[in-house]
Amino acid sequence: MTIRLALLLIAAQLCAQDRGAILMEFQGFLSIPNVASDGPNIRRNAEWLRQAMERRGIKSQLLEVAGAPPVVYGELTAPGAKRTVVLYAHYDGQPADAKQWKGSPPWEPSMRGGSPMDPETRLYARSSADDKAPIMAMLAALDGMKQFNLKPTVNLKFVFEGEEEAGSGHLGRILAANKRLVSGDYWLICDGPVHQTRRQQLYFGARGVVGLNLTVYGAARELHSGHYGNWSPNPAVMLAHLIASMRDENGQVLIQGFYEGIEPLSETEKRALAGAPDIDAMLMKELGLARTEGRGVLDVINRPSLNIRGVRSAGVGEESRNVVPSEATVSIDIRLVKGNDPARMVELLRRHVEGRGYAVLDREPTPEERLGHPRIATMKVSDAGYRAVRTSMDLAEAREVIEAVKRLRPDVVLLPTLGGSVPLAIIEDVVKAPMIGVPIVNHDNNQHAANENLRLKDFWNGIELFRALFMMETAK
Amino acid sequence: MTIRLALLLIAAQLCAQDRGAILMEFQGFLSIPNVASDGPNIRRNAEWLRQAMERRGIKSQLLEVAGAPPVVYGELTAPGAKRTVVLYAHYDGQPADAKQWKGSPPWEPSMRGGSPMDPETRLYARSSADDKAPIMAMLAALDGMKQFNLKPTVNLKFVFEGEEEAGSGHLGRILAANKRLVSGDYWLICDGPVHQTRRQQLYFGARGVVGLNLTVYGAARELHSGHYGNWSPNPAVMLAHLIASMRDENGQVLIQGFYEGIEPLSETEKRALAGAPDIDAMLMKELGLARTEGRGVLDVINRPSLNIRGVRSAGVGEESRNVVPSEATVSIDIRLVKGNDPARMVELLRRHVEGRGYAVLDREPTPEERLGHPRIATMKVSDAGYRAVRTSMDLAEAREVIEAVKRLRPDVVLLPTLGGSVPLAIIEDVVKAPMIGVPIVNHDNNQHAANENLRLKDFWNGIELFRALFMMETAK
After folding, report:
1. Cβ neighbours of residue B166 under 8 Å, at least 6 residues apart?
2. Given an 8 Å threshold on Cβ–Cβ distance, is B316 in contact with A211?
3. E strand residue ranges, B181-244
4. Nearest-10 crossing angle of helices B19-30, B39-55
5. Cβ contact A119:A190 at 8 Å
6. Are the beta carbons of A54 and A75 closer than 8 angstroms?
7. Which phi and psi (to 5°) does residue A184 adopt?
8. The predicted structure's pLDDT at residue A74
9. pLDDT for the residue numbered B461
C-alpha cells in the first residue's frame, strides 16, 4: 500500500477513531492551570504530558534549568528513517481573569454549539487553542496511526516549552544545554492560527520586534494654559510634529534608512504571496474601515513597520484640565523583517529625533539639561526585541513539508512570514536549523483573551495534518 | 486735610492698627469650610460675612435663588458722593484633599515663617488667598479708616459670590433678579494675584475660553500591531498629523481665520504693555525652559491661543501593548480675546478638521458611518465657554482708579487683560458696567492646590490699597 493510499484510507476512516476519547483526554489536560509563573501547576502539566507521551511509546524526559518551567522532551525513532523532524509547541498559557469568562471559567473546559460530532462546536478553555491543541493533535495522530498499524516515516522529536507566554526567558539555555538531544533536520513550529479564510497555512518565518518609549518635555511643571499657553513649549504639540515627521498619513515611514538592508523575497516567495488569498476587503468590512494605509496587508507584513501603540500627555475628557502639559510620551513598536537589526532600527529612530533638533537621553533630563537644550527627548527601549527569521521555501526540507501538506490540503496558503513576532531567533541561535510554522487552530480563537476556544473542525483537521506529516515522503 | 495727606498719614500709622485683631477675625472666617456644594457650611460663611459687614455699618442682605449659595450683598453710602463702585469677590473656595496638605489641614488656618509682624510670614488655609483675602482686606480697610474718622468718598456696594469655584452657575440669575440693587458706575473685580515681580497690578479684562475634545478613529477594535500595523489606519498618527496641522512648532495657530476679528489694542493699552515688566527670562529660568514658542508672554496673552491640554491613545510605558489603537483623543482649550466669539472659534476648528478630509460628528460614529467615511472625527465641546471682556483704560472711571492706585503704588503694572479666564461676561451681560481687576494676593499662593497661602506683606498692602480706593478722588 502506498503512503498516499494509506492517507486516503485514514481520512475516510477518521470517524472510526474515538473522538470522544480524544476530547476526554484533552479536557483532562486543559483542566490543569498552566500559567508559567504558577510553579506547582506547570509541573503538573509537564508530568501529565510526559506520561501521555510515554503511553504512546515516546521516550520522554523533562529538560530543566533552575527556577524555570521544564521543557518536556520526547523522541520517537522511525527505523530506517533519515530525516529527523523536531516539533515545537508550548504547554503554558496566558494568565486569565476568570471574571471575564462567560459560561465556564478558564480551566474548566466546556463544549458549546452542539455535539462533538458537529464540526462547528467549540471547546472553551485557556490554551484550548494556544497552544495545547497542537500537542493533543500530535498525540491523537499517533493513536490513529496505531489503529491502522502505521508507523512514522521520519524520526520525531518533541520540544514542548512551558514558558512561551512569559517570554521564553530560559528556552535558549535549556536548548543549549541539550544541543545534541534537540538536534534535527528542521523544526516545525506548531503555534499560531490557520488562515482567516479557514484554509490551512504554513508560515516560513516571523517578524522581529523592538519596543520603546519616547518622552518630550515642556516646562518643569504643568502650567496654567491661560497664562502660559502658546508661550511655554507644549510637549503634546512637539510630539505631534515628531510623530508626523516619522510617518506620513499612508503608513510610509519617513525615517532615513528605514527600508534599507531588507533581504529581498525570492521568486518562490513572491509567487507564494501572489497566490495567497486577498483578504483586504474582508478585513476592512470586519474592522469598520473605509480605507487602509495604502498597501495590501500581505505586502505590509513583508516590510518593516513603525507602529504608534500609545500616546499620553496630561488628561482628556473627564480628566482634562486647562494646563500646558509638562511632558508627552509616545510608545512605539517596530516590526522587523529579515535583514533588519533591532539595534540599528532603534539607532535610526534616535538619529531621526536628533535630526529634528532634540538632545536624546536615555533618562530624564536634569534641571541644568533642561535649561541647556531647547528640545530634549528621553528614549527608553522597553523590549530589547529580536530579529526576524525566515526559512527559504526552496530548501529540500521545506519542499518536502509543502508537498506533504499539499497532498492533504491542495489549497494550503504559503506565507513567507507572519505579520506578528515569534522569538524564532532564540531557537535559531542555538539549533541553526530551518524552521517552518505549522498552525492548526482557528484564527478566531480569542487567543490571549477571555473565552479562548478551539473550533473542533480545525482540531480534527489538525490531527489529519500531523498524521500526514508524520508519514510524509522524504528525499533521503 | 487733603485726601493725599490723609493717605500718607494712614500709611505711616498702619502699624498702629491692630494687626493681631485683623488676623484673628480672618482666621475665624477661614475656619468655616467653603466648598460651594457644601450647603450648610456655605450658608455659615454667608451668615458670618453678613454679620461682619453689619458690624461695620454696611447694610447687608443675602441675595438668593433656590438651590444655590447666596450672594452676600452690602451697601455703604457716602453722603454727597456721585460715584458708586461695586466690589466683587467670592467667599467660596476650591475643594481640598486634606491628605495633601502639610502642616495643617485646609480649614485650620496656621501661620508659618515667623511672627505676624514679619511681612514674609504666610497664613495657610483654603481661600486664605483665593478669594477671602480681598474680602477681609476691605473690611479691615474700613476699620482702619474708622480709627481716623475717615469716610469713603464713593458709594460702596459689595457683591460677594458663593459659587465662583463651581462655575458661577447662578450668578447671572441672581444679578438679573437684583439689577437695581447691584447697579453702579463700574465694578472692581477683586480676584487673582498681583504681578510676579510682587508689584501691584490692575487688569482691565480677562480672556474668554472654550474647551473641547476631539477623537479620531481607526479600526472598530484594537488590532494586533504585528498583523495589522501600517495597514490599518493608526488614529494616533492621524491625530498627530491633525495637531501638527493646527499649530506650528512656534506656537502659531494655522487654522484659517483664527487671528481675524480681534479688537486691536488702543494706544494707551499698547503703552501700558510696553511699560509692563518683561518677565520672560525670569519665567524661563523658573520653569526650566531653554526656549519659548517665539513671542513674549505679554504679547501672547493679548492674542487668542490654541492649547493642547491633553492627548490619549491606548497605553504607554508600563501600560503599552503591541496594538494599533482604535481611537485617539486630544483635549483642547482655546483662549479668546476681545472680538472672538466662542462659537465661531469652535466652528473655525471644525472647518479646519473637515478641510483635512474628516467627517466631523458630535457623537461616536455608527458602524455604517465608519464604513462610509475614510476619516471620521467626533468633536464635543466640553465647556461652552464665554467671551473675553476688556475695559478701556481711557474711560474716566478707569483713569480715576489708575490715579488712585498710582498715588499709593507708583510702579503699578497695568495689564489690558489677564492671560487666564474669568467669567466677566456673565456680569457684563447683566450689569453693562465697566470692570477693572484689582488683585491683592501673592502670585505664589498655591491657588486651587494644596497648601494655599497668603503672604502677609501682600495682605497689608491690600488693606492700604482698598483704603486708597475707598477714598479716591473722583471727577464727579
Report:
1. B36, B37, B92
2. no
3. 186-189, 201-203, 205-217, 223-224
4. 150
5. no
6. no
7. -165, 175
8. 98
9. 96
**β-strand pairing of A186-189 with A435-437:** parallel
Q: Could A225 and B328 be called an inter-chain contact, meaning their C-beta atoms sit closer than 8 Å?
A: no
> CA-to-CA distance for B143 and B149, rounded, in angstroms?
10
Instruction: Quickly state the pLDDT bin for A9 (edges 50, 70, 90).
Output: low
Residue B429 has pLDDT above 80, yes or no: yes
Kindly state the cell numbers that stand for B226: 504585528
CATH number corresponding to B209-265+302-385: 3.30.70.360
**CA triplet B185, B186, B191: central angle to 5 degrees?**
155
Taking contacts as CB-CB distances below 8 angstroms, the residues of chain B near A290 are 370-374
CB contact under 8 A, A291 and B228: no
Q: Output b/e per residue, B34-58; b: 16+ Cβ within 10 A.
A: bbbebeebbeebbebbbebbeebeb
Q: Which residue of B has its CA nearest to A312?
A: B312
Every domain of chain A and the residues it spans: 3-204+391-470, 209-265+302-385
Q: Scanning the structure block, which residue is given the C-alpha cell 455699618?
A: B57
CB contact under 8 A, A307 and B335: no
Q: Strands B205-217 and B389-390, how do they pair?
A: antiparallel
The three cell numbers locating residue B142 = 474700613
Q: Could you give the C-alpha distances from B170 to B164, B189, B423, in angstroms and in order?
A: 9, 18, 12
Closest CA–CA distance from residue A104 to any residue of chain B (Å): 25
**Running DSSP on this structure, what letter comes out for residue B263?**
P
pLDDT of residue A166: 86
Rounded distance between C-alpha atoms, residue B158 and residue B473, angstroms: 20
Q: Give yes or no for B309 touching A (CB within 8 A).
A: yes
H or E element that contains B258: none
Sorted by sequence, the CB contacts under 8 Å of residue B270 that are 6+ apart come out as none
Strands A110-112 and A122-124, by their bridges, are: antiparallel
**Is the Cβ of B370 closer than 8 Å to some Cβ of chain A?**
yes
What does the pLDDT average to over A154-165?
96
Question: Cβ B291–A374 below 8 Å, yes or no?
Answer: yes
Cell numbers standing for residue B374? 475614510
Q: How many CA atoms lie within 13 A of A228 on its CB side?
A: 24
Nearest to B231 among A221, A300, A324 (CB): A300
Do the strands B305-314 and A305-314 form a parallel or antiparallel pair, or are they unpaired?
antiparallel
Give the tens place of pLDDT for each residue, B204-242.
999 999 999 999 999 999 998 999 999 999 999 999 999
- Contacts of residue B240 in chain A, CB cutoff 8 Å? 239-244, 308, 311
- H or E element, residue B79: none
Which H/E stretch holds residue A206? Answer: strand A205-217
Contacts of B325 in chain A (CB under 8 A): 308-310
| Mutual angle of helices A456-470 and A396-408, in 10-degree steps | 130
Dihedral sign, Cα of residue B454, residue B460, residue B466, residue B472: negative
The pTM (predicted TM-score) of the whole model is 0.88
Give residue A42's pLDDT: 98
Q: Measured at the alpha carbon of residue A281, what is the angle toward residues A280 and A286, in degrees to the nearest 5?
A: 95
- Point out which residues pair with A247 in neighbouring strands: A253
Domains A3-204+391-470 and A209-265+302-385 share a fold: no
Class of domain A3-204+391-470: alpha beta
Determine, for residues B233 and A291 on separate chains, whether the beta-carbon distance falls below 8 Å.
yes
* B316·A330 Cβ contact <8 A: yes
Q: How many CB atoms lie under 10 A from the CB of residue A258?
A: 22
User: Under a CB-based contact definition with an 8 Å cutoff, are residues A434 and A220 in contact?
Assistant: no
Render A444-459 in DSSP notation, one character per residue.
-S-TTSTT-EEEHHHH
ipTM for the whole predicted complex goes beyond 0.90: no
Total residue length of chain A: 476
Q: Tell me the average pLDDT of chain A.
A: 93
User: In Å, what is the CA distance from B311 to each residue of A230, B159, B225, B237?
Assistant: 16, 39, 20, 12
- Specify which residues B82 forms β-bridges with: none
Which residue has 520526547 as its cell numbers?
Answer: A74
